[in-house]
């Protein structure tokens, strides 16, 4: 059997999220542990479009998650759980998340996408003016820095191109100055193009 046919059979040809009989799309679940049938859903165009662009999500449409989160199909539970986390701002969602149950393996799969991460908890690298820095940005030094282990100082005004963020330390970035890779404190840089 083909993937389409397997999913139609499993879902009785209805959307596995909202129950619409207009289901016609195979949805490959991102961050899945494999590519088998059990890592896909059979969904309708409305669910597909709103999952692709969460800004278009219709709160009333997604009330279907009240039922789909209890599905016996792990893939349905995973996508339902992820959508609930994307819609946390809706007043009814936190209560549903509190009572939803996913076994350890299914929960690990659901969390693989990072949809449950709180943006406030994520490490943010910011320059001396509070502008958010990203990998590949260019920065300008706002202070002359002594470079440990080198015979030069990094002068104020030096442009450091294509920086790399130090993943576990919001106060540090890496970049090349005079051909040497150095660690720089974010409080001594400003993002190039900002004042």
Written description of the protein model:
- The chain is of the alpha+beta class.
- It has 2 domains: 3-118, no CATH class; 139-191, SH3 type barrels, CATH 2.30.30.40.
- 25% of the residues lie in helices and 17% in strands.
- The chain has helices at 3-11, 45-52, 65-68, 74-86, 93-99, 104-111; strands spanning 25-28, 40-43, 139-141, 145-146, 153-154, 159-160, 164-165, 172-177, 180-185, 189-191.
- The strands form 4 sheets. The protein has a 3-stranded antiparallel sheet with strand order 6-3-10, with no helix packed on it. The chain has a 3-stranded antiparallel sheet with strand order 7-8-9, with no helix packed on it. A two-stranded antiparallel ribbon has the order 1-2.
- A hairpin with a 6-residue loop joins β7 and β8 (172-177).
- The protein is elongated, with a radius of gyration of 23 Å.
